[in-house]
Amino acid sequence: MLTRRHFIQTSVAMFSAPVAMTALPRSGAAQSQWSAWDARVTPAGYDPATTNPWGLHSRFLPVRVEANSGLRPGDIHVDAVARYLYHIEEGGTAMRYGVAIARGNLYEPGTYDIRRKARWPKWTPTADMIRRDPGLYSEFADGVPGGPANPLGSRALYLFVGNRDTYLRIHGTPYPRSIGGRASSGCVRMVMPHINDLYEEVSTGATAYLYPAESYLTAAS
C-alpha cells in the first residue's frame, strides 16, 4: 500500500499533447455520431488546464505533476481521499485529474487490469444495482445506448481482475458537478473532456490501483 509520502508532489507544468491511439472497434449506426457528440461535450476553446464551465474547484483541473521513482509508466492510481486520478508518464511525471468515487460502501479499492476501452459506450445497470434500487434502474435493464446523456459518458476504461469483468469502470459523466464527491454506484467518474484526453494515453493491459477512501493516501495534494 502506498502512503502519502510515497507518491507524488505537485508541479506547475502544463498539460501535454495526447498521443493518438486506436480506439476499441465498435459497430452500429451511433458510431457516425461520435465526432458530433465529442464536439457537443467539449467547451469551445477548450484548454484542459483552465477551461471550467462546470464550476469545479481549481484543484480538480488537469495538471502535470512530478511522480516518485518506481511507478510504472502507463498505470493509473486513484487517490480516493483527495479525489485524484494520476496517470503515470514516462520521464518521472504524471497527469492528475479530479474524479468522483462511489458513495458509501460501494467503492471497491483494489488492483485492477484495464482490459477494454470504449468510446461512447452502452451502459447497462448491474443486477445488484437493480436489486438495490429497482425503481431507479429496472427500466434500464436492457441497457442505454451511448450518447451525451448516457451515465458512462464519452469514454470508459473497463476494470478486470484476471479474466473477470468487475463491472467497475473509469468513465465520463453527464454530471460534472459530482466531481470531488461520492456519487456513483462503484465506478470512478471524470469530466468528459478530461477522460477524452486520458483515454488517448491509456493502453489496455495497464494497471489501475484504487486506494482506500479512509486511511491511506497516494498523493500530496
Describe this structure in words.
The protein is of the alpha+beta class. The protein has one domain: Beta Barrel (L,D-transpeptidase catalytic domain-like), CATH 2.40.440.10. It is 13% helix and 29% strand. The strands form two sheets. A ten-stranded mixed sheet has the order 1-2-5-4-3-12-7-8-9-11, covered by helices on one side. A hairpin with a 4-residue loop joins strand 3 and strand 4. The longest helix has 10 residues, at 192-201.
The stretches of 5 or more residues where confidence is low (pLDDT under 50) are 1-28, 216-221
CATH architecture: Beta Barrel
Q: Look at the helices and sheets and give the structural class.
A: alpha+beta
Number of structural units classed as domains: 1
Strand content: 25-35%
The number of strands is 12
CATH class: Mainly Beta
CATH topology name? L,D-transpeptidase catalytic domain-like
Secondary structure tally, helices = 4
Q: What is the CA-CA span between the terminal residues?
A: 18 Å
Order of helices and strands: EHEEEEEEHHEEEEHE
Oligomeric form of this entry?
single chain
Radius of gyration using CA atoms only:
17 Å
Helicity level: 10-25%
Shape: globular
Largest sheet: 10 strands, mixed
Mean pLDDT: 84
What is the CATH homologous superfamily assignment? Answer: L,D-transpeptidase catalytic domain-like
With strands numbered from the N-terminus, the spatial order across the biggest sheet is 1-2-5-4-3-12-7-8-9-11
